[in-house]
Amino acid sequence: MKKEITDANFRLEFLDGARGWASFAVLLSHLLVCVLVATTPLLNYNRERILEGLHNRDLITLFVGTIIRFVSDGHLAVIIFFVISGLALSIKNLNKENRKLELAASSRYFRLAIPVFFTSLIAYILFKLGLMFNSAVAALSESPVHWLGGFYRFELTIFEVIKFSLRDVFLPGGPDFVNPILWTMNYELLRSFVIYAYLGIFRSAGKVQWPIVIILTVMLFLSKPLLSCFFIGYMIAEITKSVNINSFLNKIKSRYREMFFGMIFLTSAVLSAYVRGSDRWSCLFGAGIVVSICFSVKLKCFFSNSASRFLGGISFPLYLIQIPLICSWTSYLYIELPELGLERINANLVNLFSTIILALLSARLLLPLESLSIRYSKKIGSYLIKN
Predict the structure, then answer these.
(1) Taking Cα atoms as reference points, which of 25, 26, 39, 22 lies closest to residue 349?
(2) 97 in helix, strand or coil?
(3) E strands along the chain, which residues?
(4) 3-state DSSP call for residue 366?
(5) Cα dihedral 71, 74, 78, 84 in deg (nearest 10)
(6) Residues near 298 by Cβ (< 8 Å), separated by ≥ 6?
(7) What does the pLDDT read at residue 8?
(8) Burial letters for 8-36: b for 16+ Cβ neighbours within 10 Å, e otherwise?
């Protein structure tokens, strides 16, 4: 019997799917752009090469390069994470009767800290077993990927891993030597508390305070763009729940509505491939992508399909485990494959696809950890509220 898809779980599925593809884009960013492209010019579709293709009317270079730059834009993917986090954290708590702000706030730290600790422990074990080869890669005279040498350079202790996982990773500017990708945890934790506080103060009467949230978001956008992403997500949540806006959209013929939001998605994606280096622009592109996904039926269907649901289910473990894998498996193959007689481009392609497969499998194996963190974070949060 086919499972009935309700509006609630459909919404959860397409948001999870978008988060899953964003996590995959971060993996491509670190793996393809930061490691393999650096030594394989054929794979390097930088902005100058694509613009040259446009000048020479090389449509293949233009098309392929734009797609590769979009799907491997890790910074844009992180911003999409932040917008979706603001949306997901808000949409569950807009209804005053059903909201559980105290439970959400009291369990949030443990929801993040538990998987961070266990994946940091995996990195520690790999380091202790001598399976981190990133420093050897960075030390190669011909290697342009010196950034890899910044991690796991000195003796790690279990105490440092615990301190990093339970405290330092959540502090602004905290050390990143255990897992450098986790600079986002400070935003995810502290900014989620800001969203909960806003909902508790300004959404307690059950009415949207548009002037307040618009002014606040604009001020943050101009001063702290990454923080504004969470409030952009909150506003998207309010818009998706608005009876008037949904009534207005329903009056528009579906094909025109799909064309409009499809163009927002396409424009944001294409421009993000060429306009980089500014958090403000990336916030606008990320917001455009999330808005278009929320209001386009076709995009909802794509981000709710089986592949998207799979990536959505493993998005957090995939995000957490990728740097330890790149510093171990990817770095090892980077050194050893050419020793077997493979040309650098062939070695890098083998490295690319094998690392992707291993990352997906590892994230899938970590799903019980994800379920455990969700279950026990709520139990701990409930305990703290009662006591």
Answers:
(1) 39
(2) coil
(3) none
(4) coil
(5) 0
(6) 258, 262
(7) 45
(8) eeebbbbbbbbbbbbbbbbbbbbbbbbbb
Helix (H, G, I), strand (E, B) or coil at 144: coil
Contact assessment for residue 338 and residue 344, using Cβ atoms and an 8 Å cutoff:
yes
Residues 6+ apart with CB under 8 A from 95: none
The total of other beta-carbon atoms located within 10 Å of residue 152's CB is: 23
How buried is 370 (Cβ within 10 angstroms: 0-12 exposed, 13-18 middle, 19+ buried)?
buried
- Structure-block tokens of residue 207: 């009415």
Query: pTM above the 0.85 mark?
Result: yes
- Pair of tokens at residue 227: 């923080």
Give the integer Cα–Cα distance in Å for 101 and 199.
8
Burial group, residue 231, by CB count within 10 angstroms (0-12, 13-18, 19+)? buried
Please give the pLDDT value at position 344. Answer: 80
Q: Residues with Cβ < 8 Å from 247, sequence gap 6 or more?
A: none
Which residue is listed with tokens 């077993």?
129
Chain Cα centroid distance, residue 150: 22
pLDDT at 386: 85
> 141: exposed, middle or buried (C-beta count within 10 Å: 0-12, 13-18, 19+)?
exposed
pLDDT at site 275:
84
What is the three-class DSSP state of 89?
helix
d(CA 136, CA 142): 12
Q: pLDDT tens, 16-60?
A: 999 999 999 999 988 876 666 666 666 666 666 676 766 676 677
Q: Which amino acid does the sequence have at 18?
A: A
- DSSP secondary-structure letter at 3? P
Q: Are 67 and 358 in contact (CB under 8 A)?
A: no
Residues of the chain with pLDDT under 50: 1-11
pLDDT of residue 55: 67
- Cβ 233 vs Cβ 87: under 8 Å: yes
Token pair belonging to 231? 């409030």
The structure tokens listed for 262 are 């499809």
